[in-house]
Amino acid sequence: MINGKKIIVVLPAYNAEQTLEKTYREIPFDIVDDVILVDDRSSDKTLQVGKQLGIKHIIEHQENKGYGGNQKSCYNKALALDADIVVMLHPDYQYTPKLIHSMCYLIANDVYQVVIGSRILGKGALKGGMPLYKYVANRFLTLSQNILMNQKLSEYHTGYRAFSAKVLRSIPYNTCSDDFVFDNQMLAQIFYAGFEVAEITCPTTYAEESSSINFKRSTEYGLGVLGVSFGYVLQKTGLAKLKIFEGIRPNNN
Fold it and tell me: CB atoms < 10 A from the CB of 214, how many?
């Protein structure tokens, strides 16, 4: 805990057998109270590794629910366990668990309610092996999203995120897509609710065992991201009423 706030790390896993243990061993258990592993119907031994590590809370999907569907299970379980701070960490070791301290202290001390680890701040992305086409696409999409959504993030596409329970309870994330665009829809909900997002520089490791999507899926993702941003504009201007924004009450704090 930090300042009496319970911290839970959630691991949305899919075929993470080779990297799960390395990721888990670096989690700072001096502040982390619990870990949740959600296996999205892996075809390898991810589940067995999780059990061998002694992870207390393991959820096994009986069918593959997708990247977004996996996260929904993660956050729902974390809130059911009365988490005050939830950190989403990919178990493929693309992001270092060593930043959990920094991310959680910002939330625990009420500086920010959401903190993300940015691969673009500094030179971490290309230095860590991010493919050039993904880096260029990331920069283009982020610029477009910042203009459309009137924000100033360095990137919207990192999978390293920490949230206060207040934020997770304030947004209907279960209405978001089960696919990769989930992350962007969730950020749109957070901004629509009036929360600010902090960023910290995050070194990145791209390896053969790291999870990734191919060029075709990346293109589909990019179009989906732009669709989310345009939808946000339509929602803010009152020209549309989208399901992912239903019930959100703006936070004025």
Answer: 7
> What ranges do the domains of the chain cover?
7-245
The DSSP-derived string for 203-243 is: -B---TTS----HHHHHHHHHHHHHHHHHHHHHHTTS---G
CA distance 138 to 120: 9
Q: At what angle do helices 215-236 and 182-192 cross, to 10 degrees?
A: 20
d(CA 58, CA 4): 25
- Per-residue pLDDT of the chain (253 residues), as tens digits, is 999 999 999 999 999 999 999 999 999 999 999 999 999 999 999 999 999 999 999 999 999 999 999 999 999 999 999 999 999 999 999 999 999 999 999 999 999 999 999 988 877 667 767 778 778 888 999 999 999 999 999 999 999 999 999 999 999 999 999 999 999 999 999 999 999 999 999 987 766 555 556 677 788 888 999 999 999 999 999 999 999 999 998 664 4
CA 81 to chain CA centroid, nearest Å: 19
Residues 6+ apart with CB under 8 A from 176: 68, 72, 182, 185, 186, 189, 244
Classified as helix, coil or strand, 11 is strand
Largest interatomic CA distance in the chain: 52
Nearest-10 crossing angle of helices 132-149, 182-192: 30
What are the structure tokens assigned to 25, written together? 């061993």
- What class, spelled out in words, does domain 7-245 have in CATH? alpha beta
